[in-house]
Structures are given as C-alpha cells and as structure tokens.
UniProtKB/TrEMBL annotation:
Keywords: ATP-binding, Nucleotide-binding, Transport. This is ABC transporter ATP-binding protein. One of its GO terms (molecular function) is ATP binding. PANTHER family: LINEARMYCIN RESISTANCE ATP-BINDING PROTEIN LNRL (PTHR43582:SF2). The lineage of its organism: Bacteria, Bacillati, Bacillota, Clostridia, Lachnospirales. The keyword Nucleotide-binding applies. Gene3D superfamilies: P-loop containing nucleotide triphosphate hydrolases. InterPro entries: AAA+_ATPase, ABC_transporter-like_ATP-bd, DrrA1/2-like_C, P-loop_NTPase. Residues 2-232 form the ABC transporter domain. Pfam families: ABC_tran, DrrA1-3_C.
C-alpha cells in the first residue's frame, strides 16, 4: 500500500530523514516507534506531500504521491499530533465540516457524522464547543474529524500524547476497530507499550532511519537478550558473581545496591539454573523477577541508548 524508498529530508544542515525505507502492506496497523526527534513526524509530513524532501520516492496505493495527488488524498485520513479543530464550531459541526470535504451527499454525511460521534464516544457532547472539552475528549474529537469519511488509509501521529488512561484506552480500542473494519493504519508513538499492544508490524526509528522492522516477536529475536532476571536484596561475593556470570546463557551481569540483574540469551530453565545455584551456595535473596525483553531492550541493544526519555 505504501512504499518509501531512500527518503532524505534535511532542515539546513540537520538530516531529519536519512535514507528511510518503509514498506507498508494493506490491512496492517504499522507502528513507527522512536524517541523524540527521530523523524516520525517528518516522515508523515513527507508521506502526505505536505513537506518537500531532498531525495527518495514515495508511492501510495501504487501511485507516486505528489502535492496535488487528490485522488490519493481522498482515501487518506489524518490525525495530526496537534489538535486542529475550529473553536467556534460545536463538536458536531466540526466533524460535519471535515466530512463535507470528502462527502457532498447530505444524507450520507449525516450518517457518517453520527457514526463517528458514536465511535469516539462523543455523542453526548455534540453541542459543546471544543474549548469546553477535556484534553482526552478533544483528542477524540480530533480523531473523529480525521476518520469520519472512512478512509482506506489512516495516519495517526502520536494521538495519545498527554491523554488520560481512559481516553487512551478508548483511542487504542478505536484504532483496532477501524483496522477490523478495513482501514490500514500508520501509527507513530514513542510509547513502546502502545505500539506493542496494537501494531501488527513496527519500524523502530532512530536519527531518521528505520533501524529495525518487523513484528514484535521478530524484533525481539533480533537481539541477544532473551530473558532478564532481576533479584532484590541479595549479597554476593566477587567469586559468587563470577560463578553466576559463567552459568549457561548468561552474558551480562550487573550488581549494585544489593540488586542483581542478569541478562541471558534465550534458553530453557534459565531461571531455575540461577535459583539452584543460589540455593546450593546458601545465598539469601528477596524478590525475583524474570522478564522477557521489551522493545526498549531492542532499541537499547541496537543503539546503545534508552528509548524512553
Ligand atoms: N521545521 C523544522 N525546522 C528545523 N528542524 C526541524 C523542523 N522540524 C523538525 N526538525 C528537526 O528534525 C528532527 C526530526 O523531527 P521530527 O519532529 O520529525 O521527530 P519526531 O520523531 O516526530 O519527534 P517527536 O516525537 O518529538 O514529534 C528533529 O531533530 C527536529 O528538531
């Protein structure tokens, strides 16, 4: 559905997109995950031909995307990072206005606006002006305006930033529902939990490049870490620490403030082996946690820095 090839965008001497390559298939919820400044919004703006770029090719629905590609644009719904609605119009009028940009038939429009209101849970707020809505409800209105015409492709740029948990869940459920109804979705975020929860495939972005692309499982298999064991309230001698380092699959051990963190590659019985060793040496310990790697670990291992700010 979308092909981005070798996309380069510079702002003066700053390279915001550095030969970005992406391939997005019909039916996906495709996540662009990256820290602030990694180039997600720039990529979206180039994709929508809102921003000129220096090099590269963008094709949507098999056709080259240009600023005047209205035949392509009519099938795209956009929910931008900054809320863009009219303060002097009510909730209903706002959604109706955006719908009217695509749908001229009044009857059909009324039906679509009612559906969008229901969909984002704003039916009871239809007469309210946007200024009276809470931050979360305002975001939901922003979404309703972007999706009301039922586009084939929906692009959402960080729609849950600074949103309360209730609205966030509503938004995430809504995105999955839109996808079930047939829309392909591109979703940018710097929240790895959200992206893991809803996206069928993810491109991890850093410094304007997609440094890894795949399903959550595929991304996690790209790194050495298969399991992380955390043990609290433990006292170890340097010898004992060295023995733990030698256990099978262990490749990194850190020990500070009586907290032990062991990184292991995937393998059966990793935790059992560690616990058996501690027991055999009569070493006391507190809480034990065994965690699977997160997308933050993927980012950390590939870039050497944390995904979180
Ligand atoms: N109009 C602009 N002029 C100059 N530099 C810009 C402009 N827009 C973005 N940049 C820079 O380009 C880089 C990529 O920014 P972009 O907004 O695309 O990142 P992002 O991943 O969307 O970040 P965020 O999550 O903060 O929105 C950043 O270093 C940013 O400072």
């Amino acid at each position: 559905m979308i092909q981005i090839e070798n996309l380069v965008k510079r702002y003066g001497s700053l390279v915001a997109l550095d030969h970005l390559n992406l391939n997005i298939e019909e039916g996906e919820i495709f996540g662009l995950l990256g820290p602030n400044g990694s180039g997600k919004t720039t990529a979206i703006n180039c994709l929508l031909a809102l921003l000129r770029y220096d090099k590269g090719d963008i094709r949507i629905f098999g056709k080259p995307m240009k600023p005047n590609s209205y035949d392509i644009k009519k099938d795209i719904g956009v929910v931008m990072q900054n809320v863009a609605v009219f303060d002097l119009m009510s909730v209903y009028e706002n959604i109706d206005y955006f719908c009217g940009l695509y749908v001229t038939n009044k009857k059909k429009r009324k039906l679509l606006v009612e559906e969008a209101l229901e969909f984002v849970g704003l039916s009871d707020y239809r007469k309210m002006r946007p200024k009276k809505l809470s931050g979360g409800l305002l975001r939901r209105l922003n979404i309703a305006c972007g999706i009301v015409h039922k586009p084939k492709l929906i692009i959402m740029d960080e729609p849950t930033v600074a949103v309360d948990p209730q609205s966030r869940n509503k938004i995430l459920e809504g995105i999955m529902e839109l996808n079930r109804q047939g829309s392909t979705i591109i979703y940018t975020s710097h929240y790895m939990e959200e992206v893991e929860q809803i996206c069928s495939r993810i491109a991890i972005m850093d410094k304007g490049r997609a440094i890894a692309t795949g399903t959550t499982e595929e991304l996690k298999k790209m790194i050495k870490t298969g399991e992380i064991i955390l043990i609290d309230a433990i006292s170890l001698t340097p010898d004992e620490l060295a023995r733990i380092q030698e256990l099978p699959h262990v490749y990194d051990v850190s020990y500070t403030d009586h907290k032990l963190k062991i990184k292991l590659s995937s393998g059966k019985h990793n935790l059992v082996r560690v616990l058996e060793y501690l027991q055999s040496e009569d070493i006391y310990f507190g809480r034990v946690l065994s965690e699977l790697p997160t997308l933050n670990d993927v980012f950390l291992e590939i870039t050497g820095k944390e995904l979180r700010d």
